[in-house]
Structures are given as C-alpha cells and as structure tokens.
Amino acid sequence: MEKKNLGKLDIIILIFLLLIAFVFRLYHITSPLSDSYSWRQADTAAVARNFVKDGFNLLEPRYDDLSSIQSGKENPEGLRFVEFPLYNAMFGLLYAAFPYLALEVYGRLISIVFSLILICIIYILLFTEHSRTAAIIGAFIYGVFPAFVFFSRVVLPETTAVSFTFLSILLLSLWQKQKKIHILRTLFFFSLMFFSIGILIKPTVIFFGFALLYIFVEKYRWSVVKKALPYLYFILSLLPFVLWRLYIQKSPEAIPSSEWLISSVNTFEGQKQIFMKPAFFRWILFERINIMIFGGFLTGFFILGLFVKLKKLLLHSIIFSSIAYLFVFQGGNVQHEYYQTVILPAFAIFSAIGTSFFIQNRKMFISPFLVYPIIIVLFIFSFMFSYYYKVKDFYTYPKDLNHMAKILKTFTKSSDKVITDRLGDTTLLYLADRKGAPMLYKTLEEFKEEGYAVYMTDKKEIIADLKEKKQYHILFENEQFVLFKL
Known about the structure:
mainly alpha; 59% helix
C-alpha cells in the first residue's frame, strides 16, 4: 500500500472535517447541566467552581457533596479525590479569566477542543498506517456520529485524557522512525509527559500502554527486555499517578467506592454480579457498540476492519487496548454509557478501515457503481438509528430541576447546607450552587444538629408525614415539591 506524506490537500480536508465536527458539538452547548449523567458532570463542574471561589489548590479539590454516600464516610469538607483535577482546573481558569459564559459551557468547550485534537490524530494515524480514504472516513465518523459527538462534548475528563494519550501514541510512533538525536529526545519526552498527564486526568487510559509497548517492541524486537528506555518511559509516566494515589489515601472519606466497576452493576434490586455473564455481552456488544455507537448498520464495517491485514500492528494494538479496557471494567461499562468514551477513537478507526476496504475492493461485487450509494445509505441509516434510538434522549433534561434550584437559591444563603433528597444525585446541589447532602440517609434531627438549614423533597409520603407532625416550617410548597426549614 502506497504511503504518502500529509500535504495541502490533507490540511484542507482536515480543516473542513474539524469545522463540521465543531458545529455538531455546539448542539445544546448552553443547556443546563442536567442532561444525561448530570450527576457525574455536576461533580466535575463543582470542583472547577470551587477552584474559582476558593483558589486553585489542585491538591485539595472540593465539590458540593458533604455526605457519606459516595465513600461510606462522612465528608464535611467536601473533598473530591478521584482523578487529578487538571481538566477541572482548565475550564475553571477559563471561567475565572473570561466569566462571560456559564462555567459548564467552558467545560464543554474544553472537551470539544480535545475531541478536535483526537480527530486530527485519528486522521494522521489512519493516513500513515492505511490510506487517505480511511483517514477521511475515520475522522468523519468520530466527528459527526451521534454517540461520538455527545460523549466528546460533556463535562467529563475522559475525552481530554484520551486525547493526551493518543498524542503520546502518535509522538512515540514518530520517535520510532526518527534518527536525529535532538528530535528523538523531544518526541520521547513529550510522549512520556502526555501519557502521564492522560493517566492523571483519567487512569483508565492506562490500557493504551499496550499500544505504547507495541511501539517499543516494534523498534527493538526481542531485545526490548534489555533496553532501558521502555522501563524509563513507563516508570516515569506512571510515577505522578502513583504519588497522587498515595497522597489521597490520607482522606478515605473523599475517595468514592469503586470496587464494583470491575464486576458489578447497581440495580433497583441491589448490586448484581455481571462479570462475563450473558447480560454483559448483550449490553456491551448489542446495546452499546452495535446500536448506540454504530447505529446497527456500521457494525459490519467495523467487524470487517478488524480482519483487514495491515503492514504494521499499531492500530490493532490500539483496538486491543480498548477491548482489554472493556473486559476489565465490565461493571462500569455496563452501568454507564459514558465509560465507552475511552474506546470511541479505536472504534472509529476500525470502522473506517472496514469501509475503506469495501471501497478498495468494489470490483468484487456485482456492480462497482453500487458501492458508494450503499455506503452512503448505510451511513445515513446508522446515524439515524444511533441518534433517534439512543443518543437523542441524552440531551434531554428535566426542567423541574432548574425550578427547584431557583427556589433553593431564593430561600437560602450561599453558606447554608441543604438536603436535596435526590437519591444521591448531586445535580440539584450544583444547579442551586449549594453544598450539602443529595439524599436523606439519616434523620432530619441529625442533619439539623450538624448545621443543615433546609430540606427539599418531592417524595409525597415524606411530605405528608412531615406536614402531619408539623415539626418543621414550610418555606415553599407547590404540587411537585416542598422546602422545609430545619
């Protein structure tokens, strides 16, 4: 297969694809932070907002949940020790410098910028490892298909982390081909640094270490075990993450429970084991990959792409890394769609390879002239099925939450601690810009003794019981919810 260097035509194509992708990602850009997975987005945005309010201390990120719900231990300081808060600090700094847009809009814009960087990397990798045709298709799929668009413009750190990680893969692949010592050192250093940053922002990208290891193996072959550079690379790139994990152990109340991510899902009947069960394969292979990501019809091109023979196995090492991640974090991937954000670039790459193979071998079919119309029709159907069957609902949000948030802000001071009774969902706390507990997990008297000021609930049986007892004064009431003063 003929390899060509990126030229002016590729720059023009990339700019065009990036403009289209950017426009698609502006859809609902200013909507309130109460769409799908708003509780996770709200926690992320709350850290950034508290940076703006209290100062950018990256070693003490705080959010709005003061309860014991996420960690099992009371967290009165509201510390949030998960991933290192670089992503939160990025859009927090933007908001602090230019407070003309809502904080969450800046969070979405940061995700969008890094998704555009990913599109460029997908194009370059496919161009150098396969063909221009595959590069255009892969960048197009990641740029416009509904699931790719939605999960690359949410206020979550995954896209940013994946972008840094793919930058590290690209730079290390360039390092492998270089001869000049100063360029070698520069590429090696920045690849190492970007991989380290990616792991800090979202540790799950560590699985792409398989792809990075493949590059070292391809360069050194069987002597790789005797070379110091691979050891140096992985030790130094993992060191900041290890130090961060050791540091946060001092505050177990700030570390959410995560054991279930590997093998369990939370249901209305409690926690259920799903590891290697038929339900896992049904949800991941059929519901998520086949329908949500590919809209059904694109799945065939993806499967075909997996079996296309390439001169090198770099792209296959990337899909291997993605599949390894899926099979290790089975609980998290079944529980939450946004966990699939990590695999989206690899899936765009191999669906593009399959489509390109279909085009390049069009003479094998009854009529070569039918190939392009068939591809166009299948892409349209895939887009429509993905959007209308799944992704469209991700953008919707309950308008009553915003009304409840306004009432909370009206009847409380910014320093008041509140109980929102949302079954652990912190969205209302974020929308109201208040700290407190997102669930009634102990008695109201206990909350009152701890300094909580109000209790908002939409649970009819609780409302009726509290009204009957006449123990707490009602600050606001309508047909949906009641705000009690403690």
